[in-house]
Amino acid sequence: MNVSTWNVAGEDMCPHRLVLEHVTSRWGVLVLLALEERSYRFSELRRHIGRVSEKMLAQTLQTLERDGLVHRDAKPVIPPRVDYSLTALGREAAAQVRALSAWTDRRMGDVQKAREAYDQKARQAYDEARS
Question: What are the residue boundaries of the HTH hxlR-type domain, all occurrences included (predicted)?
């Protein structure tokens, strides 16, 4: 599937694009990477990820569960215990996210150099415009 076949107008968003947004969202990526390591209870996962609100984590988990990537195992005990883990589909998605994460780690130096060159060029253009 190529990008030109995706509806980018908004309301009638293509389902492929929605799943891509869910998997690559800020919290979606972190949830997938964390659950790739092992299953977590909600509070453990929140602490592991850090700086995510309860609302955003719950929403992300629910979205990924609906997409078939996350399994929610609610045990009928008191107090309630809910564990989250990846499904087979989720493990596959997590592997793809992990590959992108590894690429980012490998190429961060090049990205930083590009940013510095861009910023320097922008400063020069600004200075020239002011003179």
Answer: 14-112
